[in-house]
Amino acid sequence: MVSKRKAGIDVGGTLIKAAILDKNGLNFQSFLESELTQCAAWLKESLADAEVCLTGGGASRLREKLLPNNVRIISEFEATCIGVRDLLDKEPGETPDRFILTNCGTGTSIHFVNGLNHRRIGGSGIGGGTLVGLSELLTEDHGFDALIHTAENGRRDHVDLTVARIYEGDVPPIAGDLTASNFGLAAREVKGITDADKVASVIGLVAETVTTLSLFAAEKENVQTVVYIGSSFAGNPAMREIVMAYSKLRGIVPIIPKSGQFSGAIGALLSLEKNDR
């Protein structure tokens, strides 16, 4: 039985994610980052008596809008690693002790996790912000959900240049369906390319870039598992499929845990549980 409601809130560059624990169990809630004021009002009204821990780049800005007495702040990377460990324990199979953690949110951050320790390896500006921003520049659609829906009927082979296309009539030295150049085919012929094709190719660009960086990190740290989290994977089957397939092709075990986009919020919540012991 939960004696007091608790909430962990991850204030990211695009989304605000909340994990709330009460007598009914664990629940999730999310807001756009632009809705920071509305989120604060919701917290004051719905969770006025709750103990709250914030994390993420915008944690201080949200804290300023709340009564500080019951509000703590925890490092984003610490919260994420705590949350990921909890989610992995709920996944089927054995929880890896050493792995690369790739968080693809607005941008992408890559960490090496070894037991209870973690170290940031690097990152990239390519991420969910790229997916939405570039797709909106190329099409008339707006918003993550609308873009993912548009991409459902898209064909990347109308836009991307594959290895097989370059070696047409010959046997390629590597898998023919691998991308030789993202958007490379569009440089030759743009006629007939639909918005769906464009968004599908943007998703491919982001997914392949994120995976490639993760695989290099795994090789550097000599680990066999990469855990992928972040809002970019939520409701985005194309992104998940590309990342899973490319990782496996390179001999890496990929894990995309359920509710991975809430890792930071879950970690912030669990830090409250830890402090209460």
Q: What is the CATH first-level class name of the largest domain?
A: Alpha Beta
CATH fold name of the largest domain: Nucleotidyltransferase, domain 5
- Numbering strands along the chain, what is their spatial order in the largest sheet? 3-2-1-4-5
Distance between the termini: 15 Å
How many E-type strands? 12
CATH homologous superfamily grouping of the largest domain: ATPase, nucleotide binding domain
Structural class: alpha/beta
CATH architecture of the largest domain: 2-Layer Sandwich
Could you list some keywords that capture this structure?
277 residues, alpha/beta, Nucleotidyltransferase, domain 5, 2 domains, 5-stranded mixed sheet, Type_II_PanK_bac
Report on this model:
This protein is an alpha/beta fold and 277 residues long. It folds into 2 domains: 6-77 and 262-274, 2-Layer Sandwich (Nucleotidyltransferase, domain 5); 124-256, Nucleotidyltransferase, domain 5. Helix content is 39%, strand content 23%. The chain contains 9 helices and 12 strands. It has helices at residues 36-46, 59-64, 76-89, 128-138, 144-151, 163-166, 195-221, 237-249, 263-275, and strands spanning 6-11, 15-22, 25-32, 51-55, 71-73, 98-104, 108-114, 117-124, 161-162, 179-181, 225-229, 253-255. The strands form 3 sheets. Strands 3-2-1-4-5 form a 5-stranded mixed beta sheet. A 5-stranded mixed beta sheet has the order 8-7-6-11-12, with helices on both faces. A two-stranded antiparallel sheet has the order 9-10. A hairpin with a 2-residue loop joins strand 7 (108-114) and strand 8. Helix 3 packs across helix 9, helix 4 runs antiparallel to helix 7 and helix 7 (195-221) runs parallel beside helix 8 (237-249). The longest helix is centred in the last third of the chain and has 27 residues, at 195-221. It is globular and about 70 Å long. It starts with 5 loop residues before the first strand and ends with a helix. The model has no long low-confidence stretch (mean pLDDT 91).
